[in-house]
Amino acid sequence: MFKQMKSDIRTVFENDPAARGLFEVIFTYSGLHALWLHRLAHALF
């Protein structure tokens, strides 16, 4: 699970030139939150 999260964060840095820092990406990118919560909900279903 954490490997996938690290991969998602790495993908954000590769595709978004405005991403400046790790904490910014983790705490402010709503698309990333939606992706993580979707995966969690899918696993719990």
List keywords for this structure.
about 45 residues, mainly alpha
Describe the structure.
With 45 residues, this protein is mainly alpha-helical. Helices cover 80% and strands 0% of the residues. The protein contains three helices and no strands. It has helices at residues 2-15, 22-28, 30-44. It starts with a helix and ends with a helix.
Order of helices and strands: HHH
The total count of helices amounts to 3
Radius of gyration equals 11 Å
User: Separation of termini?
Assistant: 16 Å
Biggest sheet, open or closed, and with what strands and sense?
none
Q: Averaging pLDDT over every residue, what do you get?
A: 93
Structural class: mainly alpha
The helical percent reads over 70%
How does the SSE layout of this entry go?
Blueprint: H1 2-15, H2 22-28, H3 30-44
Short structural summary:
The chain is built from 3 helices and no strands.
